Each structure stands twice: as C-alpha cells, then as structure tokens.
Amino acid sequence: MTSVLPFKIFVVEDNAWYGELLMHRLGQNPNHSVQRFSTARACLDQLSELPDFITLDYSLPDAKGEQVLRKIRERLPNTEVLVISGQEDVGTAVSMLRQGAYDYLVKDEHTLDRLWNIVGKVEQQVRLRHDNNQLRKHIGNRFGREQAILGEHSSVQLVHTLIAKAARTTITVSVSGETGTGKELVAKAIHFQSSRAGQPFVAVNMAAIPRELVESELFGHEKGAFTGAVARRVGRLEEANGGTLFLDEIADLDLSLQAKLLRVLQEREVTRVGGNQAVEFDVRLIVATHRDLLAEVEAGRFREDLYYRLLGLPIVLPPLRQRGNDVLLLAEAFVRNFCALNNLPLRQFTTEACDRLLAHPFPGNVRELKAVVELATVLADGEQIQAEDLPLRAGRAPEDPTRQLSLRDQTTAIVQNCLDEMGGDVLAVAARLRIGKSTVYRMIQQREVHIG
Prior knowledge:
This protein is α/β, with parallel strands linked by helices. Helices cover 46% and strands 15% of the residues. It folds into 4 domains: 7-138, Rossmann fold, CATH 3.40.50.2300; 145-316, P-loop containing nucleotide triphosphate hydrolases (Rossmann fold, 3-Layer(aba) Sandwich), CATH 3.40.50; 320-389, Helicase, Ruva Protein, domain 3 (Orthogonal Bundle), CATH 1.10.8; 407-445.
C-alpha cells in the first residue's frame, strides 16, 4: 500500500491558548503534521520546510499580517495562506485577499469548523497537484527522446537530434515512415519534452474518421448544425489549444477539406460547423504519414500549398530492417517490460533466436517485433526463448514509400525549409537550428540550398 505524504501545516498564532486549540483541531487528521509559531520571524525562518498550508494571525507582536503574507507569497507562491483575525474589518479582509490570501476568517464560534473545511479542500488540491506533477514527470521520462525511440543506429540518433531541436521551438513537424515505425511516439516525445508538456496532447487519425465527419471532428460544430448535432461540440483544434495537435495519416485528408485546413492554420482561428463566430486557437502542429506526400502532390491528391505549410521540420523514421542490431536491443527491452508487467522470470534469447530475428524483414516494423516478442515470451517453456518460439511469418519487406533520404539530404531539406520560412535571413536560420552561419553560407555557395 502506498503511504500518503503528510500534509504539513504551520499555525502562526501568538495567543498560546488559541494556538493550541487550532493545533488540536487540525491534528485530529492523522495525515496532518502541525507546527505552531508565536512570531512572524519564527515562521519565516522555517519556510525552508515547505509547508503545504499556513494559518496566519493578522496581529502578531513583531509584524502585521500584510507584511508576513507578502514575504510568504514571495518565497512560497504555491502555499495557501489563511488569515485569521480577531476583528471583523471588511477593508482589511479585502486587502489581504487581494494580496493572495486564500481566505479571511474572523475568530468566533464557527472558526474551527470553517477552518477544517478549508483545510480539507486545500489538502485535496495539493495532493491532486502533486499527483499531476508526478504523472507529468513519469510521462516526460517515458517519452524522453531516447526512451520513446530506443536504438543505437545512426539513423535513430539523427531522429533523437531532430526531436531535441523540434522540442525547443514551436515549428511544425512532419513525421514520415512506414507503418509501425513509431510516428506517434515521436510526436509525444516532442510534446512532452517541450514547453507545452503540461498542456493537452490531442491525436487524431485521419484515416479512422468517416469522410463526412472529419470537418466536425477537427473544427467542431454548433447545436443543430446537422442531423444528430444535439449539442455544441468543441473540435480537436480547440481541444488542443495551448498544447499539441497530432494529425496522423494526414495524406488521407479529403481534398475538399485540405483548403479549409490550410486557411484555419494560416489564420489561427476556426469557425465551428454551423456557426459564424471565429474562435482563436494556439496549437503546435505535428503531422505524420506512411505515404510519400510529395508524390501525392504530384499525383494531384494533395494540395501543394498545404504540403509546404505542413512540411516544417521533416523527420524520417527508418524501417526496422535498416536498423541492424537495434532489432535485438528492442527485442530485449520488450521482453524485460513484458516480464516485469506480468511477474514472469526474465527470459533470454538463444543465439539461434537472435539470428532469426536479425534475418526477418519485419514488414510491420517495431509494432510487429513487439507482438512477436511478447508472444514468444508466453510460448517459451523455460527461461530461454528458442528460435521455434518466435511466430515469424515469411514475407517480403514492403516498398519504401518515404524515399529514405541520406543524412545530407535531410539536413539540406531542413535548412532550405527554414530559409524559406524566415525569408532568407541566414542569421535567423543559423540561430534557430543552432548551427554556424558559415555552414548556411557554404551550402548556399555550393547551391545545395537557395534564397528566394
């Protein structure tokens, strides 16, 4: 059973009898850790203990309540302070509330009950905030760039580098790669390593939404906009406000909606279906596809203007068959996680099993490998996974739809995109990509990139 952290309360009260009364009432909860101080100085000297809640007597022998409250708020802005006074002065109460006091109570026969209720509410808020911080830390660790895309191959290291660069800015990111390579994991890694980590991450699979519902899903709708619209619905763009919107399988978006999406992204405002009021939004956009978007443009199935609007920072995920020994590294990680989750003894791959994994093309990429390894872990009779435990089916590797680029080609595409976006400002491009301006000038001189 997980132990509950004590809720630390400071009682600042110079009246010994009343101070003991407050301590007795608050101490009736076994999770409360209560300390009393009779002067402002004594309390301020102990703020390094990080109390969760403070009751503050307005009239102390060495300071007035306003002064003490201001110093507490400066040092502990997240700690709630409840002011308790022996005088009912509306002006004083308003002044203290404006300075950040949680509430203002007058000492009377109802004070203890009101205090108990207030402390209960604040404690619930503090514990919820703590749980959220722990969850955010856990998610941040889980979706760190090395944890999200595990691997030591040079192509994966390049992906790690691009994730880090993307996370430092709000540039649009386009992720491409075969099915099962981890495109959504890259999107989550960028989001949770960025300054927007505490805001929503909203993922939308364009291929999974019926064509007639895509507009309502993205932009929302007003009540009565169409048959079945019995209430207003906020779209995914509004839902992701302040955070990140991930549009997976963007190539599946119907041509008729591509123009609408382009305008919405350019104007940074959306009008719900059936409505006439524009709603502003602020999202970081990440798109993904397993198709070659440029080929889709050339075939007339994707708008060229939208293509360039979404290109942003391109990240190409390599198929598993091109990652060498990363297959074994990932397989071992999947076994460890699966065994830990199911309280099984750790399994090891035999040499023959490793050879079989390395020889398989994995058309389903990392997703297929994970499924194969977990099933093999279940099928294994002992603590070793044999070659025959691996349920691998014969199959050829798919055609590479993303036209895998070399490291140089990807670098050139990124620099060219930034030059276009920043109007040819070489210094601004160098600053954004954190490279030397001489590097950009050299690429221009060698006609690898161009201005205008």
